[in-house]
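Hi F.,

I've been meaning to write this up properly since the lab meeting, where we talked about keeping a consistent format for the predictions we share between groups. The idea is simple: the sequence comes first, exactly as it goes in, then the C-alpha coordinates exactly as they come out, then a line or two of notes. No screenshots and no reformatting. I'm using this chain as the first example so we have something concrete to point to.
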Amino acid sequence: PLISGGKIVIPKPEAMNQVMVLNDLMLRHGVSLLEGTPSFLTYLLDGLSDLPVEEKLPSVRYLGIGGESLPESLIKRVQEELPHAQLNNHYGPTETTIDAIVYPNVQVSGKNIIGRPLKNTRIFILNEQLQLVPKNTIGEICIGGPGLFRAYLNNPELTSQKLCVNPFDKSSKIYRSGDLGRWTDDGQIVF
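Output, unedited:
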Protein backbone atom coordinates (compact mmCIF):
# COMPACT_ATOMS: atom_id res chain seq x y z
CA PRO A 1 0.00 0.00 0.00
CA LEU A 2 2.76 2.51 0.79
CA ILE A 3 4.41 2.33 -2.63
CA SER A 4 1.11 3.26 -4.29
CA GLY A 5 0.38 6.18 -1.97
CA GLY A 6 -1.62 4.30 0.65
CA LYS A 7 -1.12 4.29 4.37
CA ILE A 8 -0.94 1.62 7.02
CA VAL A 9 -3.36 1.84 9.93
CA ILE A 10 -2.17 0.05 13.07
CA PRO A 11 -4.77 -0.16 15.82
CA LYS A 12 -3.84 0.24 19.45
CA PRO A 13 -3.44 -3.16 21.17
CA GLU A 14 -6.57 -2.68 23.28
CA ALA A 15 -8.65 -2.13 20.12
CA MET A 16 -7.86 -5.65 18.92
CA ASN A 17 -10.33 -6.99 21.51
CA GLN A 18 -13.11 -4.61 20.47
CA VAL A 19 -14.52 -5.51 17.09
CA MET A 20 -16.82 -2.50 16.85
CA VAL A 21 -13.89 -0.18 17.59
CA LEU A 22 -11.91 -1.90 14.80
CA ASN A 23 -14.83 -1.59 12.38
CA ASP A 24 -15.15 2.13 13.17
CA LEU A 25 -11.39 2.67 12.93
CA MET A 26 -11.27 1.08 9.47
CA LEU A 27 -14.23 3.14 8.30
CA ARG A 28 -12.78 6.39 9.72
CA HIS A 29 -9.44 5.82 7.96
CA GLY A 30 -10.94 4.41 4.76
CA VAL A 31 -9.11 1.11 5.08
CA SER A 32 -9.53 -0.67 1.74
CA LEU A 33 -7.18 -3.64 2.27
CA LEU A 34 -7.36 -5.84 5.35
CA GLU A 35 -4.77 -8.55 5.94
CA GLY A 36 -5.03 -11.27 8.56
CA THR A 37 -5.61 -14.92 9.25
CA PRO A 38 -8.85 -16.83 8.68
CA SER A 39 -9.22 -16.99 12.49
CA PHE A 40 -8.97 -13.21 12.75
CA LEU A 41 -11.50 -12.66 9.95
CA THR A 42 -13.88 -15.13 11.63
CA TYR A 43 -13.43 -13.21 14.91
CA LEU A 44 -14.30 -9.95 13.13
CA LEU A 45 -17.36 -11.38 11.39
CA ASP A 46 -18.61 -12.97 14.62
CA GLY A 47 -18.28 -9.64 16.41
CA LEU A 48 -20.09 -7.77 13.63
CA SER A 49 -22.89 -10.33 13.27
CA ASP A 50 -25.59 -7.96 14.56
CA LEU A 51 -24.82 -5.28 11.96
CA PRO A 52 -26.49 -5.10 8.56
CA VAL A 53 -24.22 -6.18 5.68
CA GLU A 54 -23.64 -2.61 4.48
CA GLU A 55 -22.16 -1.64 7.88
CA LYS A 56 -19.66 -4.53 8.10
CA LEU A 57 -16.18 -3.30 7.16
CA PRO A 58 -17.77 -0.98 4.55
CA SER A 59 -14.54 0.58 3.26
CA VAL A 60 -12.72 -2.75 2.85
CA ARG A 61 -12.48 -3.79 -0.80
CA TYR A 62 -9.75 -6.45 -0.55
CA LEU A 63 -9.11 -9.16 2.03
CA GLY A 64 -5.61 -10.68 2.04
CA ILE A 65 -6.03 -13.83 4.11
CA GLY A 66 -3.20 -16.23 4.97
CA GLY A 67 -1.28 -17.98 7.70
CA GLU A 68 -3.84 -20.80 8.00
CA SER A 69 -5.94 -22.91 5.66
CA LEU A 70 -8.93 -21.02 4.32
CA PRO A 71 -12.08 -23.00 5.19
CA GLU A 72 -14.95 -23.26 2.73
CA SER A 73 -17.33 -22.04 5.43
CA LEU A 74 -15.41 -18.75 5.71
CA ILE A 75 -15.41 -18.27 1.93
CA LYS A 76 -19.21 -18.57 1.96
CA ARG A 77 -19.48 -16.19 4.92
CA VAL A 78 -17.39 -13.55 3.17
CA GLN A 79 -19.58 -13.84 0.06
CA GLU A 80 -22.70 -13.36 2.16
CA GLU A 81 -21.51 -10.82 4.74
CA LEU A 82 -18.86 -8.85 2.81
CA PRO A 83 -20.06 -8.95 -0.82
CA HIS A 84 -18.20 -5.68 -1.48
CA ALA A 85 -14.79 -7.25 -0.65
CA GLN A 86 -12.62 -9.46 -2.87
CA LEU A 87 -11.21 -12.42 -0.95
CA ASN A 88 -7.59 -13.30 -1.77
CA ASN A 89 -5.87 -16.35 -0.28
CA HIS A 90 -2.18 -15.69 0.50
CA TYR A 91 0.54 -18.23 1.21
CA GLY A 92 4.09 -17.53 2.25
CA PRO A 93 6.32 -18.04 5.22
CA THR A 94 8.16 -15.23 6.99
CA GLU A 95 11.37 -16.39 5.29
CA THR A 96 9.97 -15.20 1.96
CA THR A 97 8.78 -11.79 3.18
CA ILE A 98 5.36 -13.20 4.10
CA ASP A 99 3.58 -13.55 0.73
CA ALA A 100 4.92 -15.75 -2.07
CA ILE A 101 1.77 -17.21 -3.63
CA VAL A 102 -1.71 -15.74 -4.03
CA TYR A 103 -5.07 -17.05 -5.16
CA PRO A 104 -7.05 -13.92 -6.06
CA ASN A 105 -10.80 -13.53 -5.89
CA VAL A 106 -11.55 -16.83 -4.18
CA GLN A 107 -15.07 -17.99 -4.98
CA VAL A 108 -14.94 -21.65 -4.00
CA SER A 109 -12.23 -23.79 -2.53
CA GLY A 110 -12.64 -27.37 -1.44
CA LYS A 111 -9.16 -28.23 -2.69
CA ASN A 112 -7.12 -25.74 -0.61
CA ILE A 113 -5.83 -23.92 -3.70
CA ILE A 114 -3.23 -21.34 -2.71
CA GLY A 115 -2.77 -19.93 -6.21
CA ARG A 116 0.17 -18.85 -8.33
CA PRO A 117 3.53 -17.28 -7.48
CA LEU A 118 3.76 -13.52 -7.12
CA LYS A 119 5.92 -11.66 -9.65
CA ASN A 120 9.66 -12.13 -9.00
CA THR A 121 8.91 -15.29 -7.01
CA ARG A 122 9.84 -18.76 -8.20
CA ILE A 123 8.03 -21.81 -6.85
CA PHE A 124 9.39 -25.30 -7.25
CA ILE A 125 7.61 -28.47 -6.13
CA LEU A 126 10.47 -30.87 -5.43
CA ASN A 127 11.06 -34.40 -4.21
CA GLU A 128 13.56 -35.32 -1.48
CA GLN A 129 16.42 -35.25 -4.02
CA LEU A 130 15.47 -31.66 -4.95
CA GLN A 131 14.18 -32.72 -8.36
CA LEU A 132 11.00 -31.38 -9.92
CA VAL A 133 7.97 -33.61 -9.54
CA PRO A 134 5.36 -33.94 -12.32
CA LYS A 135 2.09 -31.97 -12.20
CA ASN A 136 -0.45 -33.37 -9.73
CA THR A 137 2.34 -35.07 -7.76
CA ILE A 138 2.88 -34.01 -4.16
CA GLY A 139 6.25 -32.58 -3.23
CA GLU A 140 7.85 -29.95 -1.02
CA ILE A 141 7.05 -26.31 -1.80
CA CYS A 142 10.38 -24.53 -2.34
CA ILE A 143 10.55 -20.79 -2.91
CA GLY A 144 13.10 -18.55 -4.61
CA GLY A 145 13.37 -14.93 -5.61
CA PRO A 146 14.53 -11.55 -4.32
CA GLY A 147 12.17 -11.64 -1.32
CA LEU A 148 14.06 -14.56 0.21
CA PHE A 149 15.67 -14.16 3.62
CA ARG A 150 19.48 -14.34 3.92
CA ALA A 151 19.90 -16.37 7.10
CA TYR A 152 18.45 -17.16 10.49
CA LEU A 153 20.08 -14.91 13.09
CA ASN A 154 22.73 -16.82 15.03
CA ASN A 155 21.53 -20.16 13.69
CA PRO A 156 23.75 -21.35 10.84
CA GLU A 157 22.62 -24.97 11.24
CA LEU A 158 18.96 -24.14 10.61
CA THR A 159 19.99 -21.81 7.78
CA SER A 160 21.87 -24.62 6.03
CA GLN A 161 18.86 -26.96 6.42
CA LYS A 162 16.25 -24.57 5.05
CA LEU A 163 18.21 -22.40 2.61
CA CYS A 164 20.02 -24.22 -0.18
CA VAL A 165 21.49 -23.60 -3.60
CA ASN A 166 18.82 -23.53 -6.27
CA PRO A 167 19.38 -26.76 -8.26
CA PHE A 168 18.19 -24.98 -11.44
CA ASP A 169 20.22 -21.77 -11.02
CA LYS A 170 23.40 -22.22 -8.99
CA SER A 171 23.75 -18.44 -8.57
CA SER A 172 20.60 -18.27 -6.40
CA LYS A 173 19.08 -19.98 -3.39
CA ILE A 174 15.74 -21.50 -2.53
CA TYR A 175 13.90 -21.85 0.75
CA ARG A 176 12.70 -25.34 1.66
CA SER A 177 9.36 -24.64 3.35
CA GLY A 178 8.69 -28.16 4.58
CA ASP A 179 5.11 -27.69 3.32
CA LEU A 180 3.68 -30.13 0.82
CA GLY A 181 1.85 -29.09 -2.32
CA ARG A 182 1.31 -29.89 -5.97
CA TRP A 183 0.87 -28.08 -9.26
CA THR A 184 -2.50 -28.51 -10.96
CA ASP A 185 -3.00 -28.81 -14.71
CA ASP A 186 -4.09 -25.15 -14.86
CA GLY A 187 -0.94 -23.84 -13.11
CA GLN A 188 -2.35 -23.39 -9.59
CA ILE A 189 -0.71 -24.73 -6.46
CA VAL A 190 -2.72 -26.84 -4.05
CA PHE A 191 -1.55 -27.01 -0.43
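Notes:
The first strand starts at residue 33 and ends at 36.
The mean pLDDT is 95.

If this format works for you, I'll send the rest the same way.

G.
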